[in-house]
From TrEMBL:
UniProt protein name: TldD/PmbA family protein
Domain Metalloprotease TldD/E N-terminal: 29-91
Residue ranges constituting the Metalloprotease TldD/E C-terminal domain according to the UniProt record: 232-446
Source organism of the structure: Roseibium porphyridii
Superkingdom, taxonomy of origin: Bacteria
Family statement: Belongs to the peptidase U62 family.
Domain Metalloprotease TldD/E central positions: 121-224
Length: 447
């Protein structure tokens, strides 16, 4: 499948842009050339609803004139000189940015690690259709499922090249395969829906379509006839899929750009205990077959595996070049390309598991709310105030009693992090990975 992407052509585009920018008067510059191809199939009720194939190319040139910067993008590279001249003209009238610039040459990747990023298996539309239909059929076979909300299967291939005026050139190709199924249970106003999915770098690692469909159907049926809870304080357990959102709130709070802007509730907490002892959060750009695995970051900077939280203590921010310079720190290879420049962010981030299973967490909690679905984005990144709509199951004596919905969970992330207890059921498939987590004493607003 890798023959679908011509890396040599991408390298040529990036090199031509860098040279054109130099000729146009840029003091420094970098160029990113990307290309991709994808194929997806959507089915519903045993019939194909849509088959979509997409192919695209894009180049972005970023130039620096002193401390002024500008960027231009194009889908085609017919005239590199014209694109470069436009970028340099824009930069000359842009406001100065004291933190703008290319990465320090000492921090650039010199030797590229060998990573498992590419599976050469190309799937046809017929093969994707069979996968989606199999997943849908398995979901519909679950007793209580009344209809399908649709199923899909897809693959994609992406290539990227980064070249800079101070000598860096790097490239890689990555693949991704996925499938999903949504099941609807019940009838009329009593209908409930849920879904399941899987996404992997290598096709052979995907769950079987029947397993995905079966889980979607079972999840939908479990949600039938939900009850409402009265307002109370209770122990809350987020199942693994929902717990990734808690990890996401941490990621946002330790983003170097938010720290520099002083818009994070953790802005003054470096070196302090923000979680209970024993909690570890690891960011690994080299994770085997990881969704965000990469040999270099958006600036060509080398990266290491970072323990962002060690034994409960916050150890690092995510830093690109600009945020590091603003904070007077050293970049740590977490630059992401986007729009006209870079922004800091994680790679494969994992909340490391604890020792107790989900069932054992429920037993320890006695009674409480098991969250399986979250609604809305009610989190204040400046204060850490937390308020999210939720649905799931009420449990007593460690056993599920009934499904519940229309609940609001409220608290503050500073306190929630301190009380967080991770389970052992780590779902390690995605770029943001977490086990189930228990948080004691959350405020629940119900009927």
């Amino acid at each position: 499948m890798s023959e679908l992407i011509d890396q040599s052509e991408l390298q040529s585009r990036a090199a031509r842009l860098v040279e054109a920018a130099r000729q146009a008067g840029a003091d420094a510059c970098d160029a990113v050339a990307v290309t991709g191809v994808s194929l997806s199939v959507d089915v519903r009720e045993g019939k194909v609803e849509e088959t979509e194939r997409a192919e695209g190319d894009d180049v972005t040139l970023r130039v620096f004139v002193g401390k002024r910067t500008a960027a231009v993008s194009a889908n085609r590279l017919d005239d590199p000189a014209s694109l470069a001249e436009r970028a340099v003209s824009m930069a000359k009238v842009a406001p100065e940015d004291p933190f703008a610039g290319l990465a320090d040459p000492e921090l650039l990747v010199k030797e590229f690690p060998v990573l498992e990023l590419l599976d050469d298996k190309e799937l046809t539309a017929d093969e994707l259709t069979d996968i989606a239909l199999e997943a849908e059929a398995a979901g519909l076979d679950v007793d209580g499922v009344s209809k399908s909300g649709g199923a899909s299967a897809s693959w994609r291939l992406a290539g990227i090249v980064l070249a800079t005026s101070h000598g860096f050139e790097g490239s890689y190709i990555s693949s991704r395969y996925g499938m999903s199924m949504t099941a609807v249970a019940g009838e009329g106003t009593g209908m409930e829906r849920d879904y399941d999915f899987d996404s992997r770098t290598f096709f052979a690692d995907l769950d079987r379509p029947k397993e995905v469909g079966l889980r979607a159907g079972e999840r939908a049926v479990r949600r039938l006839n939900p009850q409402k809870l009265s307002t109370r304080t209770a122990n809350v357990i987020y199942e693994s899929r929902a717990a990734r959102s808690i990890l996401g709130h941490l990621v946002g709070a330790i983003n170097g750009a938010a720290i520099a802007r002083k818009t994070s509730f953790l802005k003054d907490r470096m070196g302090e205990a923000v979680f209970a002892p024993g909690i570890r959060v690891v960011d690994d750009p080299f994770k085997r077959r990881g969704a965000a695995t990469r040999p270099f970051d958006g600036e060509g900077t080398r990266a290491d595996v970072l323990e962002m939280v060690s034994d409960g203590v916050l150890q690092h921010w995510f830093l690109d070049g600009a945020s590091a310079r603003e904070l007077d720190l050293k970049p740590n290879g977490r630059a992401h390309r986007g729009g006209s420049g870079t922004s800091p962010g994680p790679t494969n981030i994992t909340l490391m598991p604890g020792e107790k299973s989900l069932e054992e967490l429920m037993t320890d909690a006695g009674e409480g709310l098991l969250v399986t679905d979250l609604i809305g984005h009610g989190v204040n990144g400046v204060t850490g105030d937390y308020s999210r709509g939720a649905a799931g199951f009420w449990f007593e004596n460690g056993k599920i009693v009934e499904p519940v919905s229309e609940i609001t969970i409220a608290g503050n992330l500073n306190d929630m992090f301190k009380r967080l207890v991770p389970g052992s059921d780590l779902d390690n498939r995605y770029s943001s990975a977490a086990p189930s987590v228990m948080i004691e004493g959350m405020a629940l607003a119900g009927s």
